[in-house]
Amino acid sequence: MARPLPKWCKEAQKKLIDEDMSVHELANKIGMSRQYISAIVNGRAYSEVAIKAISNELNIQDSYT
Predict the structure, then answer these.
(1) How far is CA 60 from the centre of its chain?
(2) What is the pTM of this model?
(3) Closest CA to 57 of 41, 42, 45
(4) 10 pLDDT exceeds 90?
(5) Spatial separation of the C-alpha atoms in residues 24 and 7, rounded to whole Å
């Protein structure tokens, strides 16, 4: 059984859909690689710096739970 996706990841994915923005566009806006941002948003990697940058860009809470 797969581990549940953190709430922050779900919020980030929802906001990307609402804003009609791709992970590639988000990565370009915050100056990080698409692969890295994809891993963060999909819960495969964790970085406080990246989460804060993504949260600021998408205007969502940066609490990773």
Answers:
(1) 10
(2) 0.91
(3) 41
(4) yes
(5) 21
